[in-house]
Amino acid sequence: MVDQVPATISVPEAASLLGISRGSAYEAARSGGIPALRVGHRLLVPLASLARELEISPEAAWALIHEEGDSGTEPPIKHPPHKRETNGADNGNNS
User: What is the pTM of this model?
Assistant: First the structure.
């Protein structure tokens, strides 16, 4: 159940709602494709504006972002692991 719908969501949350990658969502937020507010170094997405673009209510958008998996223990948004820095010995070619 949704207790309170926030005024803004993170860009990764917007990506989850839109079904796009986190990187694509940041690019769209920077270029104006997704409504976004810059607060310091953070980009925040006004939930009502994004929901309006999708023609759904902010409550429905928030519920979609935070749907729980079957077990109820999985986080709604899975972030990919960070790539480890290498010393240049591994250039990604395994030939």
Answer: 0.68
